[in-house]
C-alpha cells in the first residue's frame, strides 16, 4: 500500500516535470523561430494585407512581389555568389592555417611556443575595434614592410575592395575569430593519445606525414566545427566586410544599404513619402533572402553540427 | 634541402621543435602583420594627433590629450562606455545561467530532443551582424509584436510576475533584474547558442557512474545537479563567461562610436584613444570576473 503510493507520487513528479519541460522548450523554441516565421509570412503578403486587420499570419493575397523587389534591389544572385565565394575561400584557408597552428601549439613544442600561445589568447581578448584603424590604413597602403614598392616601382597597393584582406588574414590564421579556432584545434589535438603519434613515428612517418595521415583524419569533428563556424560567421559578418568591402556586392553591404536603395527606388529621393511599413516589408524579405541559404545548409548539416561539437575538444 | 637544414642529423625532439615553429609560422606572420604592429600603432595614434593628407599620415606626439578629450570633452563616449559595460555586467550572468539550465534540459531524454536541439542552435547561425541590427529597426516586427499579442502577453506576464515576487518579499532590484530578463528573452536566447553547446559537451563528458552511485544513495535529481553536474561543469562557467564577454565586443554602441569617430570624422587619434579605453575597461571586467569565478571553480584532476 505504502509502496504503491510512493510509486505513484514518483510517477506524478515525473509527469509534472515532463510537462514543465515540454512547455519550457516549446515556448523557447517558439521565441527563437518567431522572427523567422514572421519574415516568411510577411514576405508572401501583398501590400494590401499590411493594413488588413484580419491578416495575422496567413496572407490573404499571396504574392512574390516582395521577393522580386528585394532580389532586384540587392542584386541578389550576384551578391549570393560573391558572398558564397568569399565565405568558402576564407573558411578553407582559415581551417588549414588554424589546424596547422593548433597542432604546432599542441604537440610540437619549441622554445617560446608557450609565449606565442599567449599571443593567440591575446588576439582573442583584444576587441577587433582596437586595431581596426591601423589595419585599415595598412591595407589601404599595403607595402609589406616596403617590399611591394620595390617590385612595382614605388607604389603601394590598395587592397580595399578586393578579397585580399580576407585571403591574407585567413591564410595567416588571423581572420575573424581565428584565435578561437586555433584554441579549439589545440584542445582537440591535446586530447588525442600520444601513443598514436609515436606509433606513426616509429613506423617511419615524418612530422608532416603523421599530421596529415594520422592526426587530421582523427580531427574531423573539430574540423567540421571550425568549418561551420567560420563559414557562418564570415557570411553574417558585417564588421570587417563593411570596412574592407565598401563597394563590392556581398550580402552584408547589400543588406546594409537595402533600406536606402529601396527608398530611392520607390519614391526617388531621401525625403521620400514611401510608406515606411512597405519599406520594412521589403527589407524583411531581403533579410529572409540573406539568411535563407544558411538555413538551407543548416537543415542538412544540423545533426552533424550538434554531434561534432559535442565531440570536439572545446571541453578539453 | 634536407642536408641544408640537416633534418636527418637532428634528434627526434629537435626535429619536432623545428617543425613546430614551421607549423606555427603562418600564424606568427599574420600575428605580427595584422595584430601586433597594428596594436602598437593604434597605441601610438592614441597618444598623438594624427592628420591624414595625400602623402600619408602625419603623426605628432601629443601625450594623453586624446584620452582627456574622450573622457571629458566628447559628449557620447562616457555614456556609451558605461552602457556597454552595464550591458555586459547584466547580460553575462543571465546568459551563462540560462545556457547552463538549457544544456541540462536538452541533455535529458525526451521525445523530440534532436529537434529541440537543432532549434536552439539556430541562433548561432542567424543572430549576428547586419541581420541583428536591421532586425532591431524592423518596423513590421515591432508593430506585429504589439498587435499579435506577443508584446501584450509579455508585458502582462512580467507585470503579474513583478507583483507576485514583490509580494513574496524579494527586493525591488532583484525583481527588476529578473523581469527585465523575461522581457529580453529573445536577445538572451539568441546570444546563448554557443554557450549551450559548450555546456552540453561538458555535461556529456561526466561519467554516468557518478549519477548511478548518487541515485543508489538516494539523491534526488536536484541534489545530483548541485553535487555532481554543477561542480563538474564549473570550469566551463569560466570559459562561457569569457566567451560571452568577448562575443559582445563585435557590435554595440561603443564600437559604433569608435568606428564613426575613425571613419566618418577621420579623427584617428581620438578613435584609437577610445578604443584603448574600451579595451582597458573590457580587460578589467575580464580580469575581475575570471578572478571571482576561478576562485569557485572545481577541477576534477
From TrEMBL, chain B:
Membrane-protein topology: Multi-pass membrane protein
Compartments reported by the entry: Cell membrane
InterPro entries per record: MetI-like (IPR000515), MetI-like_sf (IPR035906), UgpAE/MalFG_permease (IPR050809)
Domain of life: Bacteria
Keyword terms: Cell membrane, Membrane, Transmembrane, Transmembrane helix, Transport
Domain ABC transmembrane type-1 stretches: 81-297
Record's keyword annotation contains Transport: yes
Transmembrane segments: 21-40, 84-106, 118-134, 185-203, 224-246, 266-293
Family per similarity comment: Belongs to the binding-protein-dependent transport system permease family.
Name of this protein: Carbohydrate ABC transporter permease
Lineage: Bacteria, Bacillati, Bacillota, Bacilli, Bacillales
Amino acid at each position: 500500500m505504502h509502496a504503491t503510493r510512493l510509486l505513484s507520487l514518483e510517477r506524478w513528479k515525473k509527469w509534472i516535470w515532463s510537462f514543465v519541460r515540454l512547455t519550457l522548450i516549446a515556448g523557447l523554441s517558439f521565441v527563437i523561430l518567431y522572427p523567422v516565421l514572421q519574415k516568411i509570412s510577411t514576405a508572401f503578403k501583398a501590400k494590401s494585407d499590411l493594413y488588413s486587420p484580419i491578416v495575422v499570419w496567413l496572407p490573404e493575397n499571396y504574392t512574390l512581389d516582395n521577393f522580386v523587389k528585394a532580389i532586384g534591389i540587392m542584386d541578389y544572385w550576384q551578391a549570393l555568389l560573391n558572398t558564397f565565394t568569399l565565405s568558402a575561400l576564407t573558411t578553407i584557408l582559415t581551417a588549414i592555417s588554424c589546424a596547422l597552428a593548433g597542432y604546432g601549439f599542441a604537440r610540437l613544442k619549441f622554445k617560446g611556443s608557450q609565449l606565442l600561445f599567449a599571443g593567440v589568447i591575446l588576439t582573442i581578448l583584444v576587441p577587433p575595434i582596437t586595431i581596426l584603424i591601423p589595419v585599415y590604413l595598412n591595407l589601404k597602403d599595403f607595402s609589406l614592410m616596403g617590399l611591394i614598392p620595390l617590385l612595382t616601382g614605388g607604389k603601394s597597393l590598395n587592397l580595399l575592395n578586393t578579397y585580399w584582406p580576407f585571403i591574407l588574414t585567413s591564410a595567416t590564421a588571423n581572420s575573424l575569430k581565428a584565435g578561437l579556432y586555433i584554441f579549439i584545434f589545440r584542445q582537440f589535438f591535446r586530447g588525442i593519445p600520444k601513443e598514436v603519434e609515436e606509433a606513426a613515428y616509429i613506423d617511419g612517418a615524418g612530422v608532416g606525414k603523421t599530421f596529415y595521415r594520422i592526426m587530421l583524419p582523427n580531427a574531423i569533428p573539430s574540423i567540421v566545427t571550425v568549418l561551420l563556424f567560420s563559414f557562418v560567421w564570415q557570411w553574417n559578418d558585417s564588421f570587417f566586410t563593411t570596412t574592407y568591402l565598401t563597394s563590392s556586392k556581398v550580402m552584408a553591404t547589400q543588406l546594409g544599404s537595402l533600406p536606402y536603395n529601396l527608398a530611392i527606388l520607390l519614391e526617388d529621393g531621401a525625403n521620400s513619402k514611401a510608406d515606411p511599413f512597405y519599406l520594412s516589408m521589403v527589407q524583411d524579405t531581403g533579410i529572409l533572402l540573406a539568411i535563407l541559404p544558411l538555413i538551407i545548409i543548416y537543415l542538412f548539416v544540423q545533426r552533424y553540427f550538434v554531434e561534432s561539437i559535442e565531440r570536439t575538444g572545446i571541453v578539453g | 634541402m634536407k642536408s641544408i637544414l640537416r633534418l636527418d642529423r637532428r634528434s627526434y625532439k629537435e626535429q619536432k621543435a623545428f617543425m613546430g615553429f614551421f607549423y606555427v609560422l603562418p600564424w606568427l606572420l599574420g600575428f605580427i602583420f595584422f595584430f601586433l604592429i597594428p596594436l602598437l600603432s593604434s597605441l601610438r595614434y592614441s597618444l598623438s594627433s594624427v592628420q591624414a593628407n595625400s602623402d600619408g599620415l602625419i603623426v605628432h606626439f601629443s601625450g594623453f590629450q586624446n584620452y582627456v578629450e574622450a573622457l571629458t570633452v566628447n559628449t557620447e563616449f562616457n555614456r556609451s562606455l558605461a552602457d556597454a559595460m552595464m550591458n555586459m555586467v547584466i547580460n553575462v550572468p543571465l546568459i551563462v545561467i540560462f545556457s547552463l539550465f538549457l544544456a541540462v534540459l536538452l541533455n535529458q531524454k525526451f521525445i523530440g530532443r534532436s529537434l529541440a536541439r537543432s532549434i536552439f542552435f539556430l541562433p548561432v547561425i542567424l543572430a549576428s551582424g547586419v541581420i541583428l541590427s536591421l532586425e532591431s529597426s524592423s518596423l513590421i516586427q515591432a508593430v506585429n509584436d504589439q498587435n499579435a499579442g506577443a508584446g501584450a502577453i509579455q508585458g502582462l506576464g512580467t507585470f503579474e510576475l513583478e507583483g507576485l515576487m514583490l509580494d513574496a518579499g524579494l527586493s525591488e532590484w532583484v525583481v527588476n533584474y529578473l523581469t527585465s530578463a523575461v522581457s529580453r528573452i529573445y536577445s538572451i536566447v539568441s546570444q546563448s547558442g554557443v554557450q549551450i553547446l559548450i555546456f552540453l559537451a561538458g555535461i556529456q563528458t561526466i561519467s554516468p557512474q557518478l549519477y548511478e552511485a548518487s541515485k543508489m544513495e538516494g539523491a534526488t535529481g536536484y541534489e545530483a545537479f548541485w553535487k555532481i553536474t554543477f561542480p563538474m561543469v564549473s570550469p566551463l562557467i569560466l570559459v562561457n563567461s569569457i566567451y560571452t564577454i568577448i562575443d559582445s565586443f563585435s557590435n554595440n554602441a561603443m564600437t559604433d562610436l569608435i568606428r564613426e569617430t575613425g571613419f566618418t570624422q577621420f579623427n584617428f587619434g581620438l578613435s584609437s584613444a577610445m578604443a584603448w579605453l574600451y579595451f582597458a575597461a573590457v580587460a578589467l571586467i575580464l580580469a575581475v570576473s575570471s578572478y571571482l569565478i576561478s576562485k569557485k571553480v572545481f577541477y576534477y584532476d
